[in-house]
Specification:
This protein is an alpha+beta fold and 189 residues long. Helices cover 40% and strands 15% of the residues. It contains five helices and seven strands, in the order ααααββαβββββ. It is elongated, with a radius of gyration of 36 Å.
Length: 189
């Protein structure tokens, strides 16, 4: 009311009109902020994420896929622009599933693209497959390998034995008379 002329200060009608306008203006301001947030995938509302998934023809299941994964998937799909290189694919998979969980390699002699992953989430696995199938050249065969993140223990022991040869190769020995060689005791080093 402070910005109105003095004539309207005591008017009950003007006060009621300003209160109604204030609610509408607050709703408009909130809508503008929501619209600004929906312009960016990482701050978008679930409704905006659903609309973007529909535009990209992604069949999402909000009951099993968290909103954060759905946002990463949209960014992944929108950033698939040529040219595609092995390094680009490695960076995309690192962004999508995390650094070190996927290794991309190419056998140029056999025309095979290997992607070795350590993924337990089925949704992520499907998205990795979609990404690779979308960007791989037609002359490469895609080979999916699975890795395990477990430690393997190796125990090493070295043993030694002396060998005494009982025969000479000069024709003076007869076959079967003595063992060909005698083994000494086994010694652990």
């Amino acid at each position: 009311m402070e910005y109105l002329p003095d004539y309207y200060v005591d008017s009950k009608q003007m006060a009621a009109l300003l209160m109604a306008q204030e609610i509408e203006l607050d709703n408009i301001a909130a809508g503008i902020l929501r619209q600004r947030d929906d312009m960016y995938v990482m701050t978008a509302s679930p409704q905006s994420i659903r609309r973007r998934e529909k535009m990209l023809r992604i069949q999402a299941d909000p009951s099993t896929e968290p909103l954060d994964f759905r946002r990463k998937r949209i960014i992944n799909r929108q950033s698939m622009k040529p040219p595609f290189t092995q390094r680009w694919l490695q960076e995309q998979l690192d962004k999508l599933i995390g650094p070190g969980l996927a290794v991309v390699s190419v056998d140029v002699q056999q025309f095979i693209l290997y992607v070795t992953t350590n993924i337990e989430n089925a949704n992520l696995f499907k998205e990795v497959q979609h990404t690779v199938q979308s960007v791989k050249p037609a002359n490469l065969v895609y080979q999916q390998n699975t890795s395990l993140n477990h430690r393997i223990g190796v125990k090493h022991t070295t043993k030694r034995r002396t060998v005494s040869w009982n025969y000479k190769l000069d024709g003076s020995w007869e076959l079967g008379e003595k063992p060909f060689a005698t083994l000494g005791p086994e010694v652990t080093l």
